Amino acid sequence: MATSASLLAAVTRGGVREIPLAHLALAFIPVAILLGIQARWSLGLGKSSLAAARMTLQLLLVGYVLVGIFEAHTPWIVLATLSVMIVAAGWIAMRSVGEGVDGRRFGQAVLAIAVAGLPTLTLVTQGVLGVEPWFSPRDWITLGSMIFANSMNTVSLAAERFRSETTAGRSYADARRTAMNASLIPLTNSMLAVGIVSLPGMMTGQVLAGASPLLAARYQIMVMAMLFGAGGIAAAIYLWLQRPREGALGITAEDAGNAEAADATNLC
Questions:
Q1: How many other CB atoms sit within 10 Å of the CB of residue 80?
Q2: Residue ranges per domain, the chain?
Q3: pTM for the whole thing?
Q4: Is 171 exposed, middle or buried (0-12, 13-18, 19+ CB in 10 A)?
Q5: What is the pLDDT of residues 241-253, one digit of tens each?
């Protein structure tokens, strides 16, 4: 397989079909039908309408932003963009866990996503693809968005399940085991279903653009491997950071809690 200077450039060489805005509007016909069903059933249209409008505006806006970023000829733009993506991923991952965003766990989520994602991104861009120039914004930002978004989801699932398990009185080891398994379920299901139940986005896009299905399959294998590895490692790092801390006497918070529970039982 020839090394590619850019994933998007490889697709472009295959010939992407341009979609006129009038034709793009046709894609919203199923959305309009769904909104009609919701209105008929008195489900309310606010959330769905807002989601559709926000999705459209966000994607159009990011398209214009990426045009400028992709034309940049400096690695500092790439580094700044990746940094913003990592911080945003950490904040979103923690937003659904508990009430509000806890500062300490937010920092742990950002650290987990960065430590797992950046080495994986470097390995893929430099080792697998051998991109030129080495800081190619198209490759780093496109693949980075996939890695960080996926790691965000696994960290969020791990954090939510870990919190539920510890709140229910489970030990750290048991809570960590359950949380790790839960965080990997979507990724594991995706790998089991790929090629049988679904053709993922990367492969579908390249095939539609005219690329060989065999070449598209290689790219998709690369993507699935990097997402599974980075996402699982990010969840593992986050859960490792939740380990009980030892106090001044070498007693962990978990041991102290167990001792208090035992004392309360003896008093009864």
A1: 13
A2: 19-71, 74-244
A3: 0.78
A4: middle
A5: 999 986 544 445 5
